[in-house]
From TrEMBL:
The chain crosses the membrane at residues 31-52, 103-126, 138-158, 164-182, 271-291. Belongs to the binding-protein-dependent transport system permease family. This is ABC transporter permease. InterPro entries: BP-dependent_transpt_permease, MetI-like, MetI-like_sf, OppC_N.
Length: 305
């Protein structure tokens, strides 16, 4: 075996960006482990609880049970454990289903934008030249757009608006930051010896980019994906709070928190918005702390080499 072949083989045999070392550094952070446990427990509770909720029954309007207090029983015999909102809808059911919707939407948007952004960023940084200029000019154009206003306009004009429409609209704009980040990382990673050796060996560009180069960006991908997961949940909740998120027939944490805009609900009927506010706060803090711990672990891996 030639020296170049040995070099490529050894480069491919190294675990991508020391994932085991990153895991070891992560396990040293006790608060991060606690945050991860809280996050896993919350997600399990949300998805298991939502499985036992019937959305049609949860969103059934009962004007006679308007603002029913926690623990009260409706005319149909349904017990409002966390009370009811202004339409007599069960707050507990909306909390479970709304949290599940927010998590699924945030996760789906994160995966779609990561695939598009990472792929375009690696392609742009690897090839450079004309391809890089064209792709980066597209990225620059999208980045200067008032994205939040454009999303609100699309939500307002789409006739049959649903969850998939919302995911598609947000995914169309939130990949550009990832593309620019991974383009810059690919520019520096592409100068390493194993990439030059692979090119000399005649390895295809696709294999070099996505089987050799991308695994060495895995720690950055993981940390970026984790942080963006929390951000996308926050964006969905914010838009629903403003009335431009999910349709009114679909439960959302942002919709429950939005009831606090009424002074009467804010002061006298805290059971409507407080549980959703606490849940979204704990979710966001847990995800962000786990993401920050992953970032610190990846930085420690780079320092240790």
């Amino acid at each position: 075996m030639s020296k170049e072949e040995k070099k490529v083989t050894s480069a491919e045999s190294i675990p991508p960006m020391g994932l085991r070392m990153i895991a070891r550094e992560f396990l040293k952070d006790k608060v991060a482990i606690l945050s991860l446990i809280i996050l896993v427990v919350l997600l399990l509770a949300i998805f298991i609880g939502a499985m036992f909720m019937d959305q049609d029954k949860v969103m059934f309007v009962s004007i006679f049970d308007k603002y029913a207090a926690p623990g009260s029983i409706s005319a149909q015999g349904h017990k409002y454990i966390l009370g009811a909102d202004e339409g007599g809808r069960d707050v507990l059911g909306q909390l479970f289903i709304g949290a599940r919707n927010s998590v699924l939407i945030g996760f789906t948007i994160t995966i779609i934008t990561s695939i598009v952004g990472v792929g375009i960023g690696i392609i742009s940084g690897y090839y450079g030249g004309m391809i890089d200029n064209i792709l980066m000019r597209i990225v620059d154009f999208v980045m200067i757009l008032p994205i939040m206003l454009i999303i609100i306009v699309f939500v307002s004009i789409i006739p049959k608006y649903n969850v998939m429409s919302f995911v598609g609209i947000m995914s169309a704009f939130y990949w550009v930051g990832k593309a620019r980040l991974f383009r810059s990382k690919t520019l520096s990673e592409g100068r390493r010896d194993y990439v030059s050796a692979s090119k000399t060996m005649g390895t295809s560009d696709f294999k070099i980019m996505f089987r050799e180069l991308m695994p060495n960006l895995s720690s950055l991908i993981i940390t970026n994906l984790t942080m963006n997961f929390a951000a996308n949940i926050g964006i969905e909740t914010t838009l629903s709070f403003l009335g431009f998120g999910l349709p009114t027939s679909v439960p959302s944490l942002g919709t429950l928190i939005g009831y606090a805009s009424s002074g009467d609900v804010l002061v006298n009927r805290q059971w409507i918005w407080v549980p959703a506010s606490i849940l979204i706060l704990v979710l966001m803090l847990s995800i962000n702390y786990v993401g920050q711990a992953f970032k610190r672990s990846a930085d420690a891996r780079q320092r240790l080499g």
